Amino acid sequence: MRHVGEHRTTSRRTRGRPLAHGLLALALLPFAANLVLADTAMDELEAEAMTISGQLAEQLTDALQEAMQRGGPPEAISVCRDLAPQLKAELSRSTGWRVTRVGTRVRNPLLGRPDAWEQTVLSDFQQQLDEGRAMTELRHAERVAEPDGEVFRFMRGIGTQDACLACHGERQDRHADTFKVLGELYPHDQAVDYRAGDLRGAFSISRALE
Ligand code: HEC
Questions:
Q1: Which helix (H) or strand (E) holds 149?
Q2: pLDDT per position as a tens digit, 116-141
């Protein structure tokens, strides 16, 4: 089983006479050192990406819980609508990373739609879930060549919890009032009919590599 995340596999079986083997190893030394360095840098970037996406996840969960307790779903809509983009912008400014959140199905097509790379990773996350992987283990890091240069990109899965269903679950349940408001705000809303445990989307964050 191979996932997109396993792009850093570098081991290779080598064959040949001992002398040729030794010479080859010598010739490859600088290259190998580079790979080790690159791997360390990747690990550091991934750790940083985990911290930043974790911060956003925590801030959003706290704000959502607080708003739900204070005023129920109508109050909490503004957390997702106004506060989420604000928190993403603040984190982007303070960390230098580009911090976003995308959905497998999207409510706000301007902010939440995955690009081609993100779609591929989301499909892979879904496949991993189908194969029994835990939601919390879904993450992927990769160096991606983009028109302006190389970029480190990282994604981490977001699961649907019970608390999300008031606004992302079935429309015709007890949250009809909420969905009426949502329908007015987002006429092309597709981020509904999720069930608890479904993949809702991912935090997607990136930064340019020198
Ligand atoms: C009170 C209503 C409400 C609740 C509860 C809620 N959301 Fe949302 N969610 C929204 C709204 C509104 C948007 C669109 C925000 C925007 O305009 O960018 C949204 C957007 C999103 C997006 C961005 C992709 C898209 O569809 O535009 C993700 C991911 C997301 N929500 C995940 C969750 C998760 C996970 C939970 C539960 C922990 C949750 N939401 C709970 C209302 C809600």
A1: strand 149-159
A2: 999 999 999 999 999 999 999 999 99
Centroid of chain to Cα 108: 17
> For residue 135, how far is its CA from the centre of ligand 1 (angstroms)?
18
Question: Token match 């040729």: residue?
Answer: 20
CATH of the domain at 103: 3.30.450
Give the global pTM: 0.83
* 53 within ligand 1 shell (Cβ under 6 A): no
Identify whether 156 is part of a domain.
Answer: yes
**Residue 74 Cα, ligand 1 centroid: separation in angstroms?**
13
Ligand 1 site, residue 108, Cβ cutoff 6 A: yes
- Can you give the residue range of the structural domain that contains 62? 37-208
Q: Which region holds residue 193: left if phi is over 0, alpha if psi is between -120 and 50, else beta?
A: left
User: 20-48 pLDDT, tens per residue?
Assistant: 555 565 555 555 555 555 777 889 999 99
8 A C-beta contact, residue 120 and residue 127? no
* Reported confidence tier of residue 2, pLDDT bands at 50, 70, 90: very low
Give Cα 130 distance to the centre of its chain. Answer: 18
Q: What is the mean pLDDT of the chain?
A: 85
Asked if residue 81 has its Cβ within 6 Å of ligand 1, the reply is yes
Q: How many domains does the chain have?
A: 1
